[in-house]
Every structure is written in structure tokens, then in C-alpha cells.
Amino acid sequence: MKRQGWGNLPLPFEMKQYKKLYDYISKTISGSVLDIGCGDAPLEETIEDYHGFDLAPQRINNRIWKGDAYDKNNYGNYDNYVLTEVLEHLEDDREVLGNIPKGKTVVLSVPSFYDRGHLRVFTEKTLQKRYGDILRFHKVVRFDCVLAKKKPFDVYLLLAYATKL
Length: 165
Hints:
single chain; alpha/beta; Rossmann fold; globular
């Protein structure tokens, strides 16, 4: 039986695409980082001043804790707030972004495809429309997805850099 990743996407899709995404983030930000919804905290190994929280973290240590994205007490004061593949799962995603202090850098990634647990999907246009009044976007990078040895198709991840208004 073939192992499956999220929804109907094969497991190699998620590993390859997210490694590229995390490598890109690690190379393009500096300063302290709070990873909201960090999961297994892949950025912890490559970012020196890293902190993260998740409702169900894979591990807990002095830099990673169990926390709720809706609880403002988890946010503190960091240079960068990272949300990779989080916002599409949240009922009130805008409330979560509202917890980030004004003037801080926000790095977020969102998918273009529906899958189990996705309440919404994004294009460059819908990303701007949904969050443009609370984030000033500086850069949006598109990561096209490739399944195994097939050609790319219209499934991609958007990685956006913004400032919290």
C-alpha cells in the first residue's frame, strides 16, 4: 500500500516541498523568531534565536512549548513571527494575526489546494484581499509542487513576507 501524505497527496510531496520552504525561510530572515503552530519545529535546527509553540508539539524544551495560537500570552516580543501552513486551518485566522505586535515581520505560508482540515485556500490575489488591511506585503514567493516524477501542476505553496500594520 502506498503511503499517503495530507489528503490525496503522496508523502514525497510534503517532505520535499516543505524542506525547500524551510530552507528558504532560514536563509532569508534574521533576528529572533516565534514559530506559531510549529509542529515538529523544523526551523529550530537552522535558526539560532528560535522559539515556537503548538497545540500538540512533537517535543517540548526550553524553546518550544504547548500553546494556543488564539492566546495572546504566547506571543511575547520577537523580531519575526512565522506561520507555516497554519492560517488555512484556523476558524479565526485574522484574530491570530491580530495577536502579533504592530511593526513586526510576519512570514507565512499558505496552500493553493483544498485538503482535509483546510478551511480556505489561497492565490496571490486572495492572500492580499484577506489580509491586506492587517499586513503590508513586501514579497510573495510561489513554490510549485511536483509529485514524484511528474510535471508541476497547479498546486503550490505561497510564502509571504509582510509587516504587521
